[in-house]
Amino acid sequence: MDLSGEIPRSFGADPIDSPVTDRWCIALYVMLGVITVSPLLWVRIPPLVDYPNHLARMWILVHGAEIPELIANYTVNWRILPDLAMDLVVSALSWVMPVEQAGRAFVALTMTALVAGTLTLHRALHRRLEAWPICSVLFVYNAALYWGFLNCLFATGIYLFAFSGWIATRHWRRGPRLLTFSAVASLLLILHLFAFGLYGLSVGSYELASRITGRRLTFRSLAECCKVLLQFVPGVALWYASLAHSGSTATSYGDPIFKLYALISPFTFGVQPTALDLFTGLVGILFLAFAIMTGSLKIAREMRAPLVVITLLLLVMPHRVSGAAFADIRLPVALVFVLIASTRFEASRKQALLSFAAVASLVLVLRVWAVTQTWGDYDRWFTEFREASAVVPPGARLAVVATPLPAQEQLPGVPGSLAKLESFPFIHMGALAVMDRGVFFPYLFTGWTTIDVTPLNEAASQRQAVPAAPEELVKSADAEQAKSLDTGPNFLGERPYWRDWPETFDFVVWIDFAKEPKPKLKQLRLLASGSFFEIYAVVRP
To answer: What's the rounded Cα separation, in Å, for the pair 174 and 343?
Structure first.
């Protein structure tokens, strides 16, 4: 697309010199942005899967030196890591607000950065403010957000700003530009390795494509591209330094079903897609087909290469990279925001435009309402557990057991077509007791984070784990039955935290929505119960 001549009118855009239209666009962004993040206003703990675990780490970072129980269980160890977005931002915000509020503010900043970054990249590419990029709000509630991959998503939003800045400063002198963006790239590396890699791919393919003339790449043009890549040298050096603190290098593709899940991850806010998720995807696909057939969607010429490179990488991305699961859902999520920023929608039919806007508005309203209601239910359950956990003495060791959710269990007040009750948001619920009671939570994210466990707790610690199954708890309590359990090391070389629970843990929280009769264990004494859990003291001879 020729950006040097007159730019045609497009969706939501009047001529570029119209301040009235700019004000309306800004007002539209602010209004829809506030609506999108509004579910955060009504909860204390957003039920994003990994979020309680991360929030507990933030609590230790801020209060770990002043609470004796935390000092006994954990140590703070700041170091160079390519995954520090939440650590840096929440620690800074905690100077002016409580940690819980700082955590919610970080989630809001993450969601806002994805939309604002898309708008900024679109503005840098097309040199005008338009309403089209506001479509990005439809994809803020995605699978990566559901799983609580907040460091990655926040850094992805900053990547959109960084890439926008690189494009907008193409008229700068080379020296100041490379120096400035060396610092930017290094910051992305510190925030999250994924964003650093995505920025490197985007800049490299963008610069390479812009220097190919007549399908030929001259040696001089290649040399110029190599000079551009010098900005990544400090970031690569930081990454190399971080390897001394890195964890597992395990990489695997996993089951093919993960690839299907990755493809729908931009519009799926859960594990099992709901009718709303599928409808959102269908609307996107039908709109894309309509736009292609009518020639309404225009891709910026200079973004074709970055989009192709990201898409190709998406197809070969493993499910687990360096020990981190669901690595393959991050690129599809990022790709949607880059694609929206790279395109312009030039509506030739007003009726089609209004129809799309109406359907998109309906999808957004349904999504925000469903999330608000769903998060409210989970927040009440979390609050119930936090109040009951007062029976646990400060500093105790807390193990977690979970019974599978009954198939018929539903969220109260929310149709199953809009949201489903899932067990995954409860995986890290026990970590909330770290904040309330200073407990030792066995699978807090430690080791390759800014938090380490004390030597006293190393034997009962596992960096990546889930609640124990009831049969695992029962069999491991009996020396003979324990022989039939697989308690060997996992891919991280760690043995299950629950293997010797009668000797290593002081309390057990048992999550059970089915409310089935519990097996009789002499090691457990009931202390408190709630609508979906029981808290037991571990009785030793």
So the answer is: 28
Check if the beta carbon of residue 231 is closer than 8 Å to that of residue 181. Answer: yes
Q: How far is CA 384 from CA 381, 399, 525, 532, in A?
A: 5, 18, 20, 9
pTM of the model: 0.93
| 446/195 Cα distance (integer angstroms) | 22
Contact 538/508 with Cβ under 8 angstroms? yes
Cβ-contact 80, 242 below 8 angstroms: yes
- Please choose, from the candidates 193, 362, 206, 386, the residue with its C-alpha nearest in 3D space to the C-alpha of residue 279: 362
Domain borders along the chain are: 19-368, 377-538
pLDDT computed for residue 215 by the predictor: 63
- CA proximity to 444, closest of 452, 83, 436: 452
Question: Distances from the Cα of 345 to the Cαs of 126, 152, 290, 304, in angstroms?
Answer: 12, 29, 11, 16
Would you tell me how many other CB atoms lie within 10 Å of the CB of residue 387?
12
Measured CA to CA, the distance from residue 484 to residue 130 in angstroms comes to 63
- pLDDT tens-place string over residues 275-303: 999 999 999 999 888 888 888 889 999 99
76: exposed, middle or buried (Cβ count in 10 Å: 0-12, 13-18, 19+): middle
pLDDT tens digits, residue range 427-447? Answer: 999 999 999 999 999 999 998
* Residues 6 or more apart whose Cβ sits within 8 Å of residue 93: 101, 102, 105, 106
- Could you tell me the CA-to-CA distances from 491 to 82, 111, 346, 488 in Å, in that order? 21, 33, 51, 10
Q: Could you tell me which of 179, 208, 183 has the C-alpha nearest to residue 196?
A: 183
User: Between 5 and 139, whose confidence is greater?
Assistant: 139
For residue 293, give every residue at least 6 positions away whose Cβ sits within 8 Å of its Cβ, in sequence order, or none.
none
Q: Indicate whether 13 pLDDT > 50.
A: no
How do 343-345 and 297-299 pair as beta strands?
Answer: antiparallel
Q: What is the pLDDT of residues 382-432, one digit of tens each?
A: 999 999 999 999 999 999 999 999 988 889 989 999 999 999 999 999 999
